[in-house]
Amino acid sequence: MEVAPGDEAEAVGESQLDVIEAFTPVPTCDMTVADARRAVGLAPSDGSMINTLGVALYRAGEFAEAVSLFQRVSSESEFYVQAKFFEGITHVQMRRAQPAIGAFRALRDAATTPESKRALRYSFTGPHALSRSSSNA
Predict the structure, then answer these.
(1) pLDDT (tens digit, 9 = 90+) per residue, 66-76?
(2) Fewest CB within 10 angstroms: 1, 18, 69, 82, which?
């Protein structure tokens, strides 16, 4: 489905937007952006560190930079499935339906092994989960 620029929110639909509300950014996070930046500086290709920084930036409302980090995670990384999940949710927050759909399709295509499916479940429940319940607020 093609979506005209500016119509992304309508394409996603109000009911889906209500469901996504649980993934809105929170004012605090487990690791500060500065700490996460230092970690990525020490291990610039580490998928875990890149995801951690991406989530910290997401929580800080820095969506564009978060997306660029999630996109940096190699498809060969054990953290690729989580990165695609986080990338998709971040695009939804930015009201960008087509990129979100692309990220979720890549996620679907990548989550084929038991390990990748566990990683996806961990995205919903682990310490990097994006819901408000994961914050220390």
Answers:
(1) 999 999 999 99
(2) 1
